[in-house]
Amino acid sequence: MEAYYKVGSLVLAAALLVAVHQVWAQDCKADIDGLMKECLQYIKKSGPQVPPSQGCCDVVKKANITCVCQNITKEMEQTISMAKVVYVAKYCGRDLPHGLKCGDTTIPKK
Questions:
Q1: CATH classification of 25-106 is 1.10.10.60, yes or no?
Q2: Nearest to residue 42, comparing CAs of 52, 34, 33, 32?
């Protein structure tokens, strides 16, 4: 009987972890959508590096950067410049921590 409860507890724990991850990803999706809407023109590969708008900075300041970085897709990386992402984050007062893996890019030392 004790083994049954242990297995049940493990299944429950696994289910909770999946649920938490899904909620985290959903929260993150809203951050990603907001960043793409407000900041895309400042982080896309084409064009010059220019200071972002206040609207972009507002989204950057509120975003869960770790979650966003973990959910950057290869398709997104084909469109955006990670160097500009770092610039925009810094301009908006959000230094990205050294070693943070953002898509396929690892944030370098300053």
A1: no
A2: 52
